[in-house]
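Retry 2 of 3 after timeout on previous attempt. Resubmitting structure tokens to design endpoint.
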């Protein structure tokens, strides 16, 4: 156990010179859910986003004041990207009226950390926004080559209620995943670098202590992963929690909750007491789902140092009964309404309904459209080059397909006008269309990786889930132009049982061009990053542009194999697929699986039994 750490629960203590109480309030992975609105479906969510988190913050501050606790409010990154509101704002000049600037200033955040997605719109945009915030924006392991408003750390004075002007000096560090250098290579190249988080934290702790920090809080935009043979933990918060001198840690990135049942307990993971390696910790969900409250009890020890002797870690749900803070709501409303109006604009028409209710069980029309849009861009970009003679394939990720975002998080585009909000659902991350030269062996590795979405099924077992809920749906890619079969009863690495192109088996050394996006080429989603000599074309065309163009040219480059993959296994195996209750009229799309509706689960999803 590191010095000064204990996970005993505490209650408010009388104020004296040898004890103190600090309440750390934290958010993470808000992803531009400022008002709690699902822009793709144009429907309110079950809460009012950061505007109602503001209400929870004020309640928590009042309670802390009554208990004699100092307070500190922090954000752990991935704030400025994630909804169509963020995308709309990214194309406009950043002013003091930006909803993020106004909301965070109104809520009186004490410091803000960065996540990898905060870089998606470029460093200039991020820096401009940071200049409008009245609190430090911290990134301890992101280093810009030029002048920057970001800070490597911050020292924040927290007045102790009931004292005669005494303050706790809290040092705050913030680290984002080392993989950000890969995922955002096209943004960072020549402008910034990302250092390993562990070394940065170890180096910063003594510096903060020397500058007078009474305790140190680490904002780690990383998940909670225990060491597993063959898998790196360089982007896990767990090793960071073991650094001597870190008194509390806020985690994030994986959109889960801690403490609670979202993580398995382990030797260094206390899911009830809320500690990582005995360090007080919290992970407050995503999309403004929760507010973290981390209450620390401190005692003064020899030499005048403060030592954490107890804590309570808990999450407060942001629910439908939590009213929005009027000031924060008013600050965000103009941009929110402007975004809704922009998204209501028709951009094309479709002769057939496009829905993705079953995208994790069978290829969908939405996936075919996305892949066709990418392929058209790359086909035109390679025209006249020798590579134009190679077979052209294209990927489509299973975006807007339920998962942690809920049972309303699906696409259903009716026959007729296609609106910008529909296109936003097909391309929520504003990716650029890129191309990669691959071999048959590369394709097999890609497809084995994407097959991780399926839980290991046991023949004859009952009520087993088809999908591994730990893997987000957007990590699942379909590759159009191929013909392949996946068997979820086999282990990953042996699940692709058939891989053909043009009716013939794909050979390991067979060359192809794969139309994809810059995030996948950089290794996003755990895929193998492309080598420089594999990248055939970097085009500035966004997938959004490509989708609108493809919708307006429906007959151009139709796929000869409309169903590129299928699930199949030896013998008869049943599994449970979850989807939206709105999918009920379309169960005929699963006719080959003999679908059987089982009812609605506690999360609001329709459960459907299918037979492979």
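Retry 2 succeeded. Sequence:
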């Amino acid at each position: 156990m590191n010095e000064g750490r204990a996970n005993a629960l505490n209650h408010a203590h009388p104020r004296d010179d040898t004890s103190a109480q600090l309440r750390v309030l934290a958010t993470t992975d808000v992803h531009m859910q400022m008002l709690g609105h699902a822009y793709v479906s144009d429907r309110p969510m079950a809460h009012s986003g950061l505007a109602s988190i503001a209400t929870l913050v004020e309640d928590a501050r009042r309670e802390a004041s009554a208990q004699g606790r100092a307070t500190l409010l922090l954000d752990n990154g991935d704030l400025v990207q994630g909804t169509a509101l963020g995308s709309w704002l990214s194309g406009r000049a950043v002013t003091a009226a930006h909803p993020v600037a106004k909301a965070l200033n109104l809520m009186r955040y004490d410091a803000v950390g960065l996540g990898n997605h905060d870089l998606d719109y470029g460093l200039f945009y991020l820096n401009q926004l940071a200049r409008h915030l009245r609190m430090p924006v911290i990134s301890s392991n992101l280093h810009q080559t030029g002048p920057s408003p970001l800070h490597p750390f911050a020292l924040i004075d927290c007045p102790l209620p009931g004292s005669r002007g005494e303050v706790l000096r809290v040092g705050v560090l913030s680290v984002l995943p080392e993989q950000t250098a890969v995922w955002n290579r096209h943004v960072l190249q020549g402008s910034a670098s990302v250092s390993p988080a562990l070394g940065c934290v170890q180096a910063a702790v003594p510096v903060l202590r020397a500058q007078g920090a009474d305790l140190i809080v680490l904002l780690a935009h990383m998940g909670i992963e225990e060491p597993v043979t063959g898998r790196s933990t360089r982007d896990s918060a767990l090793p960071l929690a073991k650094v001597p001198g870190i008194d509390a840690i806020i985690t994030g990135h994986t959109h889960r909750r801690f403490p609670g049942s979202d993580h398995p307990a382990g030797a260094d993971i206390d899911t009830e007491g809320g500690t990582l390696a005995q360090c007080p910790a919290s992970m407050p969900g995503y999309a403004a789902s929760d507010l973290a409250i981390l209450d620390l009890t401190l005692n003064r020890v020899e030499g005048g140092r403060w030592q954490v002797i107890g804590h309570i870690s808990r999450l407060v749900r942001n629910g439908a009964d939590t009213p929005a803070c009027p000031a924060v709501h008013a600050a965000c409303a103009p941009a929110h309404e402007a975004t809704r109006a922009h998204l209501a604009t028709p951009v094309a028409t479709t002769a057939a309904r496009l829905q993705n209710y079953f995208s994790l069980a069978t290829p969908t029309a939405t996936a075919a459209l996305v892949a066709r849009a990418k392929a058209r861009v790359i086909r035109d970009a390679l025209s006249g080059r020798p590579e134009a003679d190679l077979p052209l394939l294209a990927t489509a990720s299973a975006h807007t397909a339920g998962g942690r975002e809920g049972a309303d998080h699906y696409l259903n585009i009716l026959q007729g006008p296609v609106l910008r909000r529909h296109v936003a659902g097909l391309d929520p991350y504003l990716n650029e269309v890129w191309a990669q030269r691959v071999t048959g062996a590369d394709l097999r590795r890609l497809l084995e990786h994407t097959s991780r979405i399926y839980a290991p099924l046991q023949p004859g077992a009952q009520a087993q889930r088809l999908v591994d809920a730990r893997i987000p749906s957007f990590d699942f890619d379909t590759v159009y132009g191929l013909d392949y079969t996946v068997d979820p009863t086999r282990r990953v690495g042996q699940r692709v049982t058939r891989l053909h192109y043009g009716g013939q088996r794909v050979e390991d050394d067979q060359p192809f061009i794969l139309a994809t996006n810059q995030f996948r080429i950089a290794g996003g989603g755990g895929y193998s990053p492309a080598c420089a000599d594999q990248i055939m074309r970097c085009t500035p065309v966004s997938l959004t542009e490509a989708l609108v163009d493809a919708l307006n040219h429906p007959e151009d480059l139709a796929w000869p194999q409309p169903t590129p993959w299928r699930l199949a296994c030896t013998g008869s195996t049943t599994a449970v697929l979850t989807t939206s209750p709105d999918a009920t009229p379309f169960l005929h799309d699963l006719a080959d699986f003999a679908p059987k509706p089982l009812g609605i689960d506690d999360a609001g999803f329709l459960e459907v039994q299918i037979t492979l």
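Attempt log closed. The chain has two domains: 19-339, 347-456+464-563.
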